[in-house]
Amino acid sequence: MAGEAASALGLSMVVLAEHPDDAACDVAAEVVIGSPLVESELRALAARCEVMTFDHEQVDLSLLRTLVAEGVVVRPGVATLEVAVDKAHMRRVLVAADIAVPAHIVVDLEEAGPQNQAVEAIGAFAADHGWPLVLKAVRGGYDGKGVWPVNELAAAAEVVDHLRGSVLVEETVPLRAELAIMVARRPSGEAVAWPAVETAQVGGVCREVLVPGRLPPELMAEAVTLGQRVAGIVEAVGVLAVELFWSTDGRLLVNEIAARPHNSGHWTIEGAVTSQFENHLRAVLDLPLGTTALQHARVASVNIFGGTAGEDPVALLPRGLGVAGAHVHLYGKEGRPGRKLGHVTVCGDDAIDVRSRAWAAALAIGTPQPDGLDLPTGSA
Amino acid sequence: MAGEAASALGLSMVVLAEHPDDAACDVAAEVVIGSPLVESELRALAARCEVMTFDHEQVDLSLLRTLVAEGVVVRPGVATLEVAVDKAHMRRVLVAADIAVPAHIVVDLEEAGPQNQAVEAIGAFAADHGWPLVLKAVRGGYDGKGVWPVNELAAAAEVVDHLRGSVLVEETVPLRAELAIMVARRPSGEAVAWPAVETAQVGGVCREVLVPGRLPPELMAEAVTLGQRVAGIVEAVGVLAVELFWSTDGRLLVNEIAARPHNSGHWTIEGAVTSQFENHLRAVLDLPLGTTALQHARVASVNIFGGTAGEDPVALLPRGLGVAGAHVHLYGKEGRPGRKLGHVTVCGDDAIDVRSRAWAAALAIGTPQPDGLDLPTGSA
Fold first, then answer.
1. Mean pLDDT of B361-369
2. pTM of the model
3. Is the ipTM of this complex over 0.90?
4. Chain A interface, mutation test: which of B1, B12, B15, B27, most A Cβ atoms within 10 Å?
5. Which domains does chain B carry?
6. Quick one: which of A5, B239, B268, B353 could link to A277 by a disulfide (CB 3.0–4.6 Å)?
């Protein structure tokens, strides 16, 4: 999607891809085959770029530091990336800046010595905050991976047994809703934010994004301000996604940060005047940022996942495109059960109508019914 | 732009390009280097495609006929392409279907024998319709090329002297306005049309597109109906552009037809629910067509041309993107004076405001001031 935005602006995007079949290769002016974790391959990319940016967090920060020291322009910078790749560091940075986050401890599994000391620390935290708790891998988690809800100490001990380094131990926040804020920020600090959105996660995986969120306007305004503050604190350049919890006891807590265009912002392609992908490019290239205003009163975006039969989503396009106003985005991936294959956005005037149509199209393209999410009538 | 739409839908576009530097190569899943006029090269494309379609008219109809006979799926079909590539044939087909076109004769320069017989025929036509006349090459003209306004017989004789085959001789239609209709049509005949737009040409080159046109609503509705009729008559598949004259004496006349996405429809990328590029792909792949409704009350789209200094348009992006709401599209071409390099679209509620901002961005990116077109205050 960044490639589509680059093409529109007449910019040449060079992609570092693991495989020539990766979808991004189809929309890249040039392709370097390799891994961002391999120095020579990352250098091959750097040699072809004016500005290097990212669409995931699987990066080697020390390698990036070396390149930056040699004059390679990396945006966002390494300090920002460090916050995004290391949940423990992120919590520390946010707490230091007085940003509310879930109650947590970071248990260093090496320093804690015998494994039972780590478990003891978790037990003490549970005594204060109650079960269940959430254990999170400090690095490498995404889409519910690297996150383990645990109901009791024995379960926590088992998770810890399989982990190395450190583990983030958090309270289970009783949720009223989840929100996300997308901010685009230039090197100068000039920043714009899109309106707050409401996200629905099932099993840690985002299933739908509703714009604007069905939440009190003052809460959403507070969330936008918070997102912009976070972007400043982490000195983001490019797009920053800030995922928030709104708890039943009224707290607004920062849960996750991603220093790149994010699933929570895919709706901006059609729903906002400027998409997150275009503003990410503008921001990392230090170009004026585009307007983030909504183009429609209501926008709903629903993720497409592979159905149990592993159908080819392109083969199901005739069904999905039959839904009026459905903007279908497929990511060029082979259909596999449960794999995120794309998303559908619908814009309009009525919240229920746009949500209903977005779900109708996503289901038509094979997305399984989400457990624990009430779909609007007419979408199935 | 079709490549961007293909990417969004997860479709693999294979491009036949003359040079690897052609901008379309950057957004194509696969590239075949070659010419559509060379049999082996066109066959190489056909071998890689499920459906072959076009973004220009420089095609060899007899070669396409051969491929179609062998089972290659070509959309639009050869009969439609023939109308689009041969202005004399187009006029005949439209007249036979009772569609109003400018008064004209087709002079066959071979059959007419000595050159003075052709000039005599032009003189006789001028006696009926008055000077000036417009002489048009039957094939190969675009953007004002292959079109010669002539004020007197000597000038006509000079044009004819340099032409072979046949020449289309037309009245100069006294214009109140020019309009364009974009229609997308599936193989079944199912068709959708976007609202009528007003275009402004300077020297035969489109400089701006205003949506909806500043014309009586009933005229625009009549134009849409006419466009849809024409799409049916020529059995279009994919997008068809119908360019219309609205004369000072109240006639609505079909001037040109293009059987592909067209400059008059670039505004649809942001201005309509579904763009002409996406609906072209949907139509040629026989997928359900997308909604063509306007997303905004007013849309203005202004073409970007190379300035006299031949500046790189990408280098001027910081200026163009500084205009609020400016959707800048650059086509990846090197800046050369007078060359069409891209376009800018602005959407909003006020006709003067969107036009003013679109011009401001286009001028900021180096577009020369258009002669004979009054720009809104504030755009320069």
1. 96
2. 0.95
3. yes
4. B27
5. 2-85 (3.40.50.20), 103-171 (3.30.1490.20), 175-364 (3.30.470.20)
6. A5
